[in-house]
Amino acid sequence: MYSLTHIIQIIIIFQGGLLILFILANSREKFKKDLFLTLLIATLTLQITGMFLMTRDILPTFFKRTNTICLFLYGPLLFFYSKYITFSSFKLTPKNFVHFLPPIAVLTIVVLSKQEINQTYIYLAYTLSIVSYVFLSFLELRKYKRVIMDNYSKLEKLNLKWLQWTLIIFALIVLVDGIQIASFLLYGSAFQLEILVFLLILATINLLYFNGFKRSHVLLSGFNDEDFALSASISTRKRRNTHLLENKLLIQRLETHLRETESFKNPNLTIGSLSNELNIPKRTLSELINDHYDQNFVDFINTYRVNCAKEKLLDPTDPDETVLEVMYDVGFNSKSSFHTAFKKKTGRTPTQYKSN
After folding, report:
1. Most buried of the four, 95, 149, 187, 356, by CB within 10 Å?
2. Residue 294: left (phi > 0), alpha (psi -120 to 50), or beta?
3. ∠ CA(271), CA(257), CA(309), 5° rounding?
4. Residue 162: is its pLDDT beyond 80?
5. Under a CB-based contact definition with an 8 Å cutoff, are residues 150 and 230 in contact?
6. Residue 119: pLDDT above 80?
7. Which residues are within 8 A (CB) of 195 and not within 5 positions of it... i.e. 6 or more apart?
């Protein structure tokens, strides 16, 4: 007889196994990122498989120890997967393998220990591991957002909410496990929240696949060493005096160029391509934009795009031009990006602005 918990476990095992095979069969140029994605899904699937088989009384001791090792793999796998998603130039070095020492230590203890390991101590160590790595991964996302906004004009590159939710769900799983253990220690019986945990795990696997694999292969490429170096230099330097004559002339060149060429309409415009058009060093151009306009690159370019969109939306010579046509014409590639930027600058959506 299978309970609802068992049915959810079977769904996770079946779906996880299929997704692993599909990713391995279709992974190409981003293999290292996909390898960590596969390992993460495989670890989740393996642990749920162990839990399910233990309820069938199949190798309970073996799978109990295997599940203990899995708990300490999630943190490092999440962290390195986040690194590969956000940093296209990231490469594993020997010093990175220090992150896998805790799982190796747990593996050694599990293999050598003849007695059952105290589950409370395991949970406390596992909680510390997950919380630490979730925090480190959020720092990576924060760095990614800063670097992208300093170098690119494409807002779609900032859309990593699915990865944020993946990290949050892992933290929620730890929280729910903690509630169960605390209730057992305090009241002698654990709250029955296993179904919630398994549903969260199922949501995690689907987030990782449909966004981490399917979507990121189409839309996402992280920043590189050059992008990071530029962003780091901006945050650690002294402000440029934009009142000096040479800087005023450069600003005038920048504004004239954007007004005459309308290169801001290029949805793939970067600080590097704009610096080439102007024949101004990339770092100098970035510093001018940050110091004179008090904006990062993406906000600076979107100011021009939104101002152009405002003119088009109110243009009496072409009243039939749709909001969607305006969006593409001024350099945006998605409705959400256009609405976000437009509302940030005007306080209204493009449709509200046109109608009012």
Report:
1. 149
2. left
3. 80
4. yes
5. yes
6. no
7. 4, 5, 8
Residue 223: beta bridge partners? 87
One-letter amino acid identity for 119? Q
Enter the DSSP assignment of 158.
G
Alpha carbons 110 and 65: distance in angstroms, whole number: 6
Nearest 10 degrees: CA dihedral of 305, 307, 313, 318? -80
Does 79 have pLDDT greater than 90? yes
- Which tops the pLDDT comparison, 253 or 117? 253
The answer to whether 308 and 301 have CB atoms below 8 angstroms apart is no
Give the sign of the dihedral formed by CA 70, CA 75, CA 81, CA 85. Answer: positive
156 to each of 27, 41, 85, 148, how far by Cα in Å?
Answer: 22, 25, 14, 10
What digits encode the pLDDT tens for the residues 296-307?
999 999 999 999
User: Locate tokens 């299978």: which residue?
Assistant: 2
DSSP H helices, 56-97, are 60-71, 74-86
First-to-last C-alpha distance (Å) of the chain: 63
A 10 A CB-CB count for 209 gives 20
Q: What is the pTM of this model?
A: 0.87
